[in-house]
Structures are given as C-alpha cells and as structure tokens.
Amino acid sequence: KRLFLVNGPNLNMLGRREPDTYGNKSLEDVVKLVEETAGESEFEITAFQSNHEGDLVDWIQRAEEEADGIILNPAAYTHTSIALRDAISAISKPVVEIHISNVHAREAFRHTSILAPVCSGQVVGFGIDGYRLATLGMIQKIESEGR
Ligand code: DQA
Predict the structure, then answer these.
(1) Which residues constitute the catalytic centre (predicted)?
(2) 77 is catalytic
(3) CA 46 to CA 90: how far, in whole Å?
(4) How far, in Å, from the CA of 146 to the mean position of ligand 1?
C-alpha cells in the first residue's frame, strides 16, 4: 500500500521559515517521520512538495492510479484554491488535511479551509507531530474500510 505525502507552497523552507510558528524541523524531517510511521504498518510513502498550484493538482490526480490515500498540507492554497478542491472531489481516494500551526488561533483569513469539506479529516495545531497523527488516521481509515 502507498500514501502520497503532498506539501504545498513555502513548506520547502520548513525549519528556516517563521520558526516561532512552524518550529525548526525541516521538510526532510517531516518526510522521515511519515516514512517511519507508515513503515510500522508496511505502507510506503511517495513525498512531493511544490510551490505551484497546478503541480499539486497533478499529484492529487495521480493518486487515483498510484496511491491509496493522500496526506496533504496545502499551505496557503488551503484558503484560496478551488482547483485543489475540485481535484480532491475528482478522485475516489481519501485525503487528510494537515496544518502544523493552529490556523484557528491565527489571522481570520486562515480560519476557512476551502478543501476541508471534501477531505476525510483534518489535523490542526500539533506541530510536525500532526503529520504522524494524520498518517496513523489515514492508515486506520484505509484498513478499516478494506480499501
Ligand atoms: C499551514 C497554515 C497555512 O495557513 C499557511 O499558509 C502555511 C502553513 C500550516 O501548516 O500551519 O503555509 O498550512
């Protein structure tokens, strides 16, 4: 079984970017954490990061053929992207949305997720540990549904 780990804009700068908000662990650390978590259940990870909305749409579409589910941090596109929402709606594979920071305790424009209504669930505000929680939740969902 395989999960896609898809990270959106500016997350390539994780660890160096606003460390008070996002911590000092890098995207590489996140990928390792998700690979380790998935490995416990013999799931494999394909990790992808892009600053470009269309590339993220391509990867969501690809999951329909190549993955059993997606762990997605859409970053700022969470709050703006109808294209990402339509891509999630277009596929049958489950998507879990994850945010490192507690978006609800931040600016009002971060309080709305355009994507959440078409995702299976959301993990918000647990720092990068949230990626582990999202991975466990997604594996549990896939296994319990016998997908
Ligand atoms: C984020 C929250 C978004 O509002 C922000 O644009 C990001 C990161 C998070 O992981 O906390 O880039 O998705």
Answers:
(1) 22, 99
(2) no
(3) 20
(4) 32
